[in-house]
Amino acid sequence: MKRVAILISGGGSNMLALVRDMAQPGHAAMPVLVLSNDPKAAGLERASALGVPVAAVDHRPFAKDREAFEAELLRPILASGADILCLAGFMRVLTPGFVHRFSGRMLNIHPSLLPKYPGLHTHQRALDAGDAEAGCTVHEVTPVLDDGPILGQARVPVEPGDTAETLAARVLREEHRLYPAVLRRYAAGDRTPVWLP
Predict the structure, then answer these.
(1) Is 110 among the catalytic positions?
(2) Tens-digit pLDDT profile for residues 130-152
(3) pLDDT beneath 70, residues of the chain
(4) Is this model's pTM higher than 0.85 or not?
(5) What's 2-191's CATH class?
(6) For 19-57, b where at least 16 C-beta lie within 10 A, e where not — what string?
(7) Which residue in the list 27, 59, 110, 123 is annotated as catalytic?
């Protein structure tokens, strides 16, 4: 059984999708920690209600000292014995040192069809470019932002009259399908990408 720590910054909807899927029979992983950089993140209470241990390390007192913040972040991760880290709306950029420590064991979900639109404002960028489709990607985390081997993608059509908000809502529904499907395969040792229509 692989032990999974999930890092969040907000409401944790992708975290909930992962935790609920791991509760299904035959899953190769179990959630051992939900960790946030915001002590007031709503996802912490939601995870706790599902019986998952939670912790928070507020990034704000560390100002621009990312290494010091990450040293504190490591404490609950190491204490949990996590084998896999899942970034699920974790809105902090991690240093290369932290990423290398978990090389091959850290996943992220990003709301675009990578390699298109790394970074922020992905839905508006897709609309501004006149793209016919958008979607989401799960990838292994590397020191390069929103880079790394792609482990799965799901696509949605861009519809007439879409705004960044309406497109984001449809993509989020696909994120909740894709991330659990990728983690289920990944935890079982299969790195074959998942392609959802």
Answers:
(1) yes
(2) 999 999 999 999 999 999 999 99
(3) none
(4) yes
(5) alpha beta
(6) bebbeeeebbbebbbbbbbbeebebbebbeeeebebbbb
(7) 110
